[in-house]
Amino acid sequence: QVQLVESGGGLVQAGSSLRLSCAASGRTITSYAMGWFRQAPGKEREFVAGISWSGATTNYANSVKGRFTISRDNAKNTVYLQMNSLIPEDTAVYYCATPLARWAQPTGDINEYDYWGQGTQVTVSS
Description:
single chain; 126 residues; mainly beta; 7-stranded mixed beta sheet; 0% helix; 47% strand; globular
């Protein structure tokens, strides 16, 4: 069974940075795309960033482009989300996710992801 565990969230001021980590167990992430999503109170879960199995392809939501960077360390079976220039609108629970199928593209479609972590809270104060 694939398990994903996020960490690194917290309470920060606007303009600050945070780095989220997602550690996988149960399978290696080497052949799998990984994604980050977030869900703010009262809103639907939305795509934030995705990365291909090789790391060669990444994509981002327009709202975070230029501020967030997704990366992966396959040797550590871990995916990261570096978040810079945080704004209050970034406040949400952040989830990492991965699809069942190998070699899938890092789509922003939530329905393409089969395994999810429990989430980590990020709160940005103004």
